Amino acid sequence: MHERVHAAATGGHVALVGVWDPVSEGLAEFFRATVSAARRRGLGVLVVTLAPDPVATLRGPLSRPSFQDVEYRLWYQKQCGVQSRIVVHLTRREVEEGGAALLLDGIRRHVTVAGLLLKPGQSLGRGAPGGIAAIRDYCARAGIQVDFTDPYRATAGIEEARAHLANGRLARAVELLFQRLHWARPSSGSRVLPWPPGTYAAQPMETPSSATACAHGRAGMDRARDGDEGAPVQVHLTPCPGGSRLRWPEGAPPWLAFVSGPGDSCRAPADLGGRTDRRTNQWTRGRP
Q1: What's the whole-model pTM score?
Q2: Taking every annotated instance into account, which residue ranges of this chain make up the domain FAD synthetase (predicted)?
Q3: Does a cis peptide bond (omega within 30 degrees of 0) precede residue 52?
Q4: Which own/partner pairs from 152-159 qualify as long-range (CB within 8 Å, at least 24 positions apart)?
Q5: Which of 34, 84, 95 is nearest to 60 (CA)?
Q6: DSSP-assigned letter for residue 249
């Protein structure tokens, strides 16, 4: 198990564990309500993001493609007031055989956990080691209070949107989720996305739009789009093991917000306000 700490505040925390993909207005409300409730108890909030999704670890990344980059999910959590954020990577063996003790031991190395907030029926691993009895036993020994909350109001149509995503129909997924799909530039300049190869359209951005993060729904999407500078550019993903390789367009800003993919037959390159030259992979403004 590998933990990547992005923020670790002092003091006790209420811990939340999940994949958190895609984000949603309901998720934002849940994070903010949890932060407010924890503050009244003198506690902070720790959000643990499992990346990759344990289901994808078991079945393969293409079987359960991610909507949003983990970096965007972390950025989103910060906008919602979450004080501490940790990304946890589990191996296949750890997903199959690990459980509550493995996960909680790992995050407690970095942050003091005073409470654990679970959705009804949530587990922290497969079988008995991750079940509620094992969770309660561990937390009782560690002095961690276990509470349950009603599931937050997730965006409807997620599974339908994921099916579109798996087939490169990003415009359909974006329409269902009322949000574009944000990915951050990696330090290496290239990364593997669990999406089909082909030509995609993406909005280059210096930072994710606050309107997209804080005001989901069609009105929020319209405000985000109206405030953008420039227009989408073409990005070509090439086949590679585990998905498709994205080479970041040279000169492009740190974020790309994807809006359509090769499965969207209605997308026409002539409608784009910029392009990526496939020979140089350089981002250029203007019409193709």
Answers
A1: 0.86
A2: 11-153
A3: yes
A4: 152/24, 152/26, 152/27, 152/29, 152/30, 153/24, 153/25, 153/26, 153/29, 154/24, 154/26, 154/27, 155/22, 155/24, 155/25, 155/26, 155/216, 158/22
A5: 95
A6: P
- Condensed to tens digits (0 to 9), the pLDDT of residues 161-190 reads 999 999 999 999 999 999 999 999 999 999
226, two tokens: 């109206």
pLDDT at residue 12, rounded to an integer = 98
| Spatial distance between the Cα atoms of 89 and 46, rounded to a whole number of angstroms | 16
Name the β-bridge partners of 147.
117
> Cα 166 to chain center, whole Å?
16
C-alpha to C-alpha distance for 256 and 154, rounded to whole angstroms: 24
CA distances from 26 to 109, 132, 201 (A): 30, 25, 27
One-letter identity of residue 280: T
Amino acid in the structure at residue 214: C
